[in-house]
Specification:
The chain has 518 residues and is α/β, with parallel strands linked by helices. The chain has helices at 41-59, 89-103, 117-134, 138-145, 157-169, 199-203, 212-217, 248-259, 278-293, 325-330, 335-343, 355-377, 388-401, 406-417, 436-450, 464-483, 487-499; strands spanning 4-7, 12-15, 25-30, 63-68, 173-175, 181-183, 224-229, 244-246, 268-274, 299-305, 308-310, 313-314, 351-353, 382-383, 434-435, 502-507, 510-515. The strands form six sheets. Strands 4-3-9-10 form a four-stranded parallel β-sheet, sandwiched between helices. The chain binds adenosine monophosphate and zinc ion.
Length: 518
């Protein structure tokens, strides 16, 4: 079976074949988290879709060499608009933690020295890996025996400096008057191929940045930072351009090249990230890698996951609908349900996270888990001909090969599972040459991609998920009423929640709730 995969670079679905088809090896790089805070469930939607792609490739028989970075320096607050402006997110985190410590609001489990950004990075990297393993991110398990596959840029400073030297030598980079090293986008005619943001468009104001003082020092507004000398930066290294630190875009080019592209002159098969990574991050990565290698391509396929939204709205701290993995699990959801909820919408559509959806995912997993134990119990019993799961397996695979049609795959599994009545024993009359062990194997093969049956799935308190769905939806209704200044409805909902023994509090972080213990 051939995987058809949408490629952002060409804007169409293509047959996926690896760089070296004989080896059946896939070189796959995923942009990972920046560890200045806990990752939120939107971040995890991107990471989990990369995980589903990797597992699908493995189901199809490929050996996937997967690398995902953990960014611990150089990701600037303005990196989403252009070229390395603003402040390093790790420095912002250091300030946030110092302030919280002073105010006495630092959570008890966040014992970090705010003056040590390496300690901050370690703390949130550990938290990320814990969340990632809870949600079944395969690479986070492999990382336990092979930490190199989740590299940190602070360990690749030497390689980054040498990459910049190559780019300067090839006239793709220059040192500006303020000492900052920039990539010269006009030296790279392909700039804009991935995102459509060409240097000309950026000059005329689309995607360019606002800081005029910096602009004046650059050859072009889209030129982006490779190395920033800064003797005051908390994390800094010696370099030919003074003590300073590398740019975020550079980090991914260099780590992908060092860990995956050594034998291929930097070319890899697939590169993934969230949709906001297309520009400028991935556009800049292509310029840096191909500028140094003179290859026509960096990644042959670019895979981008659309954003997760929450209850129909963009996730944001101010709306109070901003969730980390620990927030959602803390409300009674299970890791298995959260994983399914975050992967069950096609990666190229926005996914709408709702607590009702989480409850539905939990129910689906409950059914599959019960079926799994029924099949194990009756593994030796015979069946007349191939069973429903064995029959559904090709359809399951077929759906995934169609640009990861996850809903189609889940549908194939669910209809097969629906043919079982697991409250009874299997019929004794069957004399066929297949057994329920074959069915169990088919279920497990499907689960090798879905990855939910081997995660924690039993809810701590019966019905907790459903309660949470009701509470969250009432709070959402009340917030809507408050937005519309409909105070009568808002007060009525508050009373309804009180009847359920739920107290709510409106604060700067949105509306929070807790159970009243009597
Ligand atoms: P960051 O830690 O900010 O570097 O982000 C890590 C990854 O999460 C990036 O690949 C982003 O594109 C992705 N991302 C951020 N917000 C969302 C969201 N709401 N939905 C899906 N992916 C997201
Ligand atoms: Zn990246």
């Amino acid at each position: 079976m051939t995987l058809r995969l949408y490629n952002t670079l060409t804007n169409r679905e293509e047959d996926f074949t690896p760089l070296d088809p004989d080896r059946k090896q896939v070189l796959f790089y995923s942009c990972g988290p920046t560890v200045y805070d806990y990752a939120h469930i939107g971040n995890f939607r991107s990471f989990l879709n990369a995980d589903v792609l990797r597992r699908t490739l493995e189901l199809l028989g490929y050996d996937v060499r997967h690398v995902m970075n953990i960014t611990d320096v150089g990701h600037m607050t303005d990196d989403d608009i252009a070229d390395g402006g603003g402040e390093d997110k790790m420095e912002v985190a250091a300030r946030r933690i110092a302030q919280a410590k002073q105010d006495g609001t630092l959570p008890a489990d966040t014992e970090i020295d705010p003056g040590d950004p390496f300690a901050i990075a370690d703390f949130y990297a550990d938290a990320f890996l814990k969340d990632a393993r809870q949600l079944g991110l395969k690479i986070a398990f492999d990382q336990q025996s092979n930490p190199d596959i989740m590299p940190r840029p602070t360990k690749y400073i030497r390689e980054m400096i040498s990459h910049i030297e190559t780019l300067i030598k090839k006239n793709h980079a220059y040192v500006a008057e303020d000492g900052v090293v920039y990539f010269d986008v006009q030296s790279f005619p392909e700039y804009g191929r991935l995102s459509g943001n060409t240097p000309d468009q950026i000059r005329s104001g689309q995607g360019g940045r606002v800081d005029e003082a910096t602009q004046a020092l650059k050859r072009h507004p889209a030129d982006f930072m490779l190395w920033k000398p800064d003797p005051k930066h908390l994390m800094r290294w010696e370099s030919p351009w003074g003590e300073g630190y590398p740019g975020w875009h550079l980090e991914c080019s260099v780590m992908a090249g060092s860990l995956l592209g050594k034998e291929t002159n930097g070319v890899i098969d697939i590169h993934s990230g969230g949709e906001d990574n297309i520009f400028p991050h991935h556009e800049c990565e292509i310029a840096q890698t191909c500028g140094a290698s003179d290859e026509a391509l960096f990644a042959r396929f670019w895979f981008h996951t659309r954003f997760l939204i929450v209850e129909g709205e963009k996730m944001s701290k101010s709306k109070g609908n901003f969730f980390t993995v620990r927030d959602v699990l803390g409300k009674g959801a299970t890791p298995a349900a959260l994983r399914l909820e975050l992967i069950k919408t096609h990666y190229r559509s926005n996914a709408n996270f709702t607590f009702q959806g989480l409850t539905d995912s939990q129910r689906q997993i409950d059914r599959w888990k019960k079926l799994e134990s029924w099949l194990s119990k009756h593994a030796d019993a015979k069946l007349d001909g191939p069973g429903p799961l064995v029959v559904a397996l090709p359809a399951f695979k077929q759906a995934l090969t169609s640009d990861l049609n996850i809903a189609g795959a889940i549908g194939a599994l669910s209809s097969a599972a629906g043919m079982y009545s697991i409250n009874a024993d299997p019929p004794e009359s069957a004399s066929g040459n297949t057994t329920y062990a074959d069915e169990l194997e088919a279920l497990q093969e499907m689960n090798s991609v879905l990855g939910v049956l081997d995660l924690e799935w039993e809810q701590a308190a019966a019905g907790a998920g459903e309660d949470v769905a009701i509470i969250e939806s009432k709070i959402a209704d009340r917030n809507l009423a408050r937005d519309n200044k409909d105070w009568t409805t808002a007060d009525r909902i508050r009373d309804e929640l009180l009847e359920l023994n739920i107290a709510i509090k409106d604060g700067s972080e949105g509306t929070t709730w807790k159970k009243i213990v009597k």
